[in-house]
Specification:
Elements (H helix, E strand, L loop, with lengths): L10 H4 L1 H6 L19 H19 L1 H4 L16 H4 L27 H18 L12 H6 L1 H32 L7 H5 L2 H6 L5 H16 L3 H14 L4 H13 L3 H25 L4 H5 L12 H7 L6 H25 L6 H15 L8 H11 L3 H22 L11 H26 L9
Helix pairs in contact: 3-8, 6-8, 8-11, 11-12, 11-19, 12-14, 13-14, 13-17, 13-18, 17-18, 18-19, 18-21, 20-21
Length: 453
């Protein structure tokens, strides 16, 4: 084990990729090197995350300059849900979440945590713009509202506030990853320096759910069961996918005789999730289910293997799709649980979470570019090897470029799936399977697991 003077694993002596790259700055750290008194691993990782957040904002500069409203957001690789929905969701008029505006605006499907934060961000964006009372906007057509220069400036400022909120989420995730990595604090740098973080951080609100999920995992690792349940319940209120953490905890609890602890965490999670649903049930009873189920509606979306199949003429009906996805999720869960039980040693939680997430996304009917953020922190914890993380992210970056340029019309069949885009899906899936294979090997043969060595 390559341990530095401060007791932490030194990546430049332990990771082959980092060791090779370190020769450009003098080679691996020496055995008698003394750690810097101020630049601790945590502070370095936080600095790297801040740089990543700034780079994300810089790379959206063309959109802030007007590409969001000139149909150039896809080509400029700077698409974001938040500014583009500012006028069309009622935020420009200060409409409160779950207000009945069906005659003017589509019914919101945002879950309660996102709806509350989205309204707060939009309010701050209008305040920063110095806008007067927006009540007279109710007389304008929504299409005209979206073209209004003042409204567009408000949308850009709203995006700025939102981007700062996502940066805070990134910093929280980084702190938690450094803590969870234990004697491998530098593993957090793999999260901070991830290309997918720069490209996808501000597409949607996904980092909110990721931060809450990682906080729940960290609280559970510290034995704080109630806190873990509250965080996981909040994360599940943001999106359904954090439930995989509870599924992953089950075989570990079984093998370590901790089923009672798992039951407590699950019960608190359910209670916290239900508490978040109350305002939606009261204010928007008829549309509540739409805030829970966003994409399992029988429709094939971009990025999925289903899209690949339908693009080459394979018929997929709505009933077949829903049934196959449910069966596929069950098969993935049983396979991962079986792997966890069969392993010689109880697997690490991050390993099982990653396997469940990737397996679930492979059978899900849509794969949006920002879904990679769900995988990133657990990939860093599950397989802390730069080679494997970079191989996986190469596939994700290639897909990121392909989806936006396909939507921009830069490929042969804009708006559909052509051979270039189909190839990108295959590359991304192959990269994910590479990561899955290495993690599954580590589960079955712990001697290959860097975090156990």
């Amino acid at each position: 084990m390559a341990v530095a003077a401060d007791g932490a694993v030194a990546p430049s002596r332990e990771d082959p990729v980092v060791a090779s790259g370190s020769h450009a700055i003098g080679g691996p750290v020496g055995e008698h090197n003394r750690p810097h008194p101020w630049w601790t691993p945590l502070r370095v990782v936080l600095l790297l995350v801040t740089v990543a957040g700034m780079l994300n904002i810089v790379h959206t500069a063309p959109c802030q300059a007007g590409a969001w409203w000139s149909n150039a957001a896809y080509a400029d690789l700077c698409y974001s849900d938040v500014p583009l929905s500012y006028a069309g969701s009622g935020a420009a008029e200060g409409v409160l979440p779950y207000t009945d505006t069906a005659s003017r605006y589509p019914t919101t499907t945002d879950p309660a945590p996102i709806a509350a934060l989205s309204w707060s961000v939009a309010t701050a964006g209008r305040a920063l713009t110095g806008s007067d009372d927006s009540g007279d906007r109710a007389t304008m057509a929504v299409a005209d509202l979206a073209r209004d220069r003042q409204v567009q400036r408000e949308a850009v400022n709203t995006y700025g506030v939102y981007a700062m909120a996502m940066l805070l989420a990134m910093l929280l995730i980084a702190v938690l990853l450094v803590r969870l990595s234990g004697w491998r604090p530098w593993d957090g740098a793999a999260f901070a320096a991830a290309p997918v973080l720069v490209l996808s951080a501000t597409i949607g609100w996904d980092l909110l759910g990721v931060a809450a999920t990682v906080a729940g995992v960290a609280a559970s690792a510290c034995g704080r069961r109630v806190v873990a349940g509250i965080w996981l319940g909040t994360a599940t209120a943001v999106a359904v996918w954090p439930l995989v953490v509870l599924v992953a905890m089950l075989p570990i609890a079984y093998r370590t005789r901790g089923l009672r602890i798992w039951a407590v965490v699950s019960a608190v999670t359910a209670t916290a999730w239900a508490a978040w649903q109350l305002p939606v049930l009261v204010l928007a009873t008829g549309t509540w289910w739409g805030t829970v189920n966003h994409s399992l509606d029988g429709q094939v979306g971009y990025g999925s293997l289903w899209r690949l199949a339908t693009s080459y003429g394979v018929p997929v009906s709505s009933a077949l799709l829903v049934g196959a996805v449910v069966v596929g999720l069950a098969v993935v869960a049983m396979a991962v649980l079986g792997l966890a039980v069969a392993a010689r040693r109880p697997p690490r939680l991050a390993q099982l979470v990653l396997l469940l997430l990737v397996g679930g996304l492979l059978v899900w009917p849509v794969y949006s570019p920002q879904y990679v953020l769900w995988l990133l922190p657990f990939a860093v914890l599950a397989r802390p090897r730069w080679r494997d993380l970079l191989i996986w992210q190469t596939g994700e970056v290639f897909y990121h470029l392909a989806i936006w340029w396909t939507l921009a019309g830069a490929t042969a069949d804009a708006g559909g799936v052509d051979d270039t885009y189909a190839f990108a899906i295959v590359v991304r899936v192959a990269a994910q399977l590479w990561l899955v294979a290495t993690v599954a090997r580590d589960v079955l043969h712990p001697g290959h697991d860097p975090a156990r060595t």
